[in-house]
Amino acid sequence: LNYQEKNDSLITAKNMSESAKPLSKKALRKLEKKKRQAAARAEREAQAKAQQDAIKEKYKHVFGDRPVAELPGEEPREYVAVGDLTEEVAASGNTFWIRGRVNDKRQTSGKLAFITIRYQIHSVQVVVAETEEIPRELVKFAGKLPNESIIDIFGHLVVAEEPIEMTTQKTVEFVAEKIFVISKSINNLPLLIKDAGRPQPLIDAQVAEVDAINAKIEAEKEGDNNEEVIAALIAEKDAAQKYALVDQSVRLDYRVIDVRTPANNAIFRLQSCLSMAFRKTLFERGFVEIHTPKLIGAASEGGADVFELGYFGRSAYLAQSPQLYKQMAIASDLGRVFEIGPVFRAEKSSTHRHLTEFVGVDFEMEFKQHYHEVLHTITEILVEVFDILGTFTEQIETVRAQYPFEDLVYPRETLILTFKEGIAMLREDPQGEFSDIADLEDLSTPQEKRLGVLVKEKYGTDFYVLDKYPSDVRPFYTMPDPEQPEYSNSYDIFLRGEEISSGAQRIHDTELLRQNAEDNGIDLVTVKDYIEGFSYGASPHAGCGLGLERVLMLYFNLGNIRRTSFFPRDMTRLTP
Q1: Distance separating alpha carbons of residues 456 and 290, to the nearest angstrom
Q2: SS3 494
Q3: What is the pLDDT of residues 223-279, one digit of tens each?
Q4: Catalytic positions, please?
Q5: What is the Cα–Cα distance from 40 to 447, expressed in whole angstroms?
Q6: Cα angle vertex 444, ends 440, 447, to 5°?
Q7: What burial class does residue 280 get, using C-beta atoms within 10 Å of its C-beta: 0-12 exposed, 13-18 middle, 19+ buried?
Q8: Reduced to 3 states, what is the DSSP secondary structure of residue 57?
Q9: 212 phi and psi, to 5 degrees?
Q10: Contacts of 539 (CB under 8 A, 6+ apart)
Q11: Of 25, 41, 268, 574, whose CA is between 20 and 30 Å from 17?
Q12: Which residues make beta-bridge pairs with 315?
């Protein structure tokens, strides 16, 4: 017996055993009908597959799946990047390949389809049309491509009859002659690029409108509770919800897709530019890049905000900063040093600006007479870094298209105010919210933001320094002000009313350093190597540390540091 006959026999035997009697004629007729239907369905499926295989074979040089980009014996391809597709290229009349992701597609008829191809931050419209040379099957193939698939397209560029608003390459469109899938995406994506990349003002307006309608619904329920009114408000709310909202947690869960949106892709390109700008300006000023341990034997900043882990039977800690090591580098006569690397803070803060791991940019340098030599160097570096970052206009405008922001305002010579002056401005503020702030109290986040507003109003800058912080709110290695010991030779640097950097002159006197450590409750055994380094002689020095993600967030006024961290780590997130 063949397989089908064996299967039929088993089914019949099973039915007979269950009923303990032969099938009726009616039941047998039903069974035969099902067999005929199954056979017909199998034949149709086989015919359809054969037809599809024949089409694939016939047009295998025109379209299909090609996971291996280069086939044996195939000629090298000439590719042009999507961002380089211009009217000048169209005028050449040349044929070439482009590669990108399927951002969107629409098939308007059996003879015509359009694909929006996206590559990084650029996009172009592709026309797939049936002609004497182009088969209809190519149009059908294009219309079924899953979004986010990576494809190669061969064809030529033409000037568009009218501007194409939905793409970056607005004056041209690509006419497809061949399409091959390099990597196919699944159909049901966890989030759509068009939703994740929608301009933030549209989302904010929708949220505000829906919240207002919800408030009306609640008021009606507490008042007359008119069902018709409530039903009308619910209908109004449904109509107001035009756009799908992509929650931050969904974005971060599927970060690999989220970063494909043009704005997010541009943000991380700009982060790379920011890192490059820091290195460039620091190298030009004679700084030496160092790399310090991230596994250390004692908390580098003291306090409880440190991650502790087991280390071969004893405790170790993740470095809160390279602070102690960059000072030891100064004592090693390196003169000027910097490091760009990971920093770990076990801060129980779920705010818009705190992470448990971030990229620290730390610099330290010796000085001759006054720590302001260092402070002025730091502000000069930051001004130059801002200048360099501002030259990447295409990426900046890509960010602005989704997250509108006002350009950063900063003078060539940075404004430096004393802590006392900052406190005075808050006390004199007409709003009076912080009129009772204490002289030696550290600033809270709301106070910093309000001071930023006042500074902008009075001095016209988003970027300034607050100098001479109270000694009690700074780390143990901070040099006190010799004329007023309750204050210190320390400073914070602000951008748009938020702190981006803390710095200070460090204590280089062994006895004073040891005394300050004891006064701050630090076990001297844990900082023995650090303190001993200064007993061999060390130059006066100062420096600062800042977070790369926070600088980027505030430069573009993005509102949340998770938008500038590739895979953020905070109290609730350890994956992906």
Answers
A1: 36
A2: strand
A3: 888 888 999 999 999 999 999 999 999 999 999 999 999 999 999 999 999 999 999
A4: 345, 347, 353-354, 499, 502, 550
A5: 78
A6: 95
A7: middle
A8: helix
A9: -65, -40
A10: 330, 331, 366, 367, 508
A11: 41
A12: 310
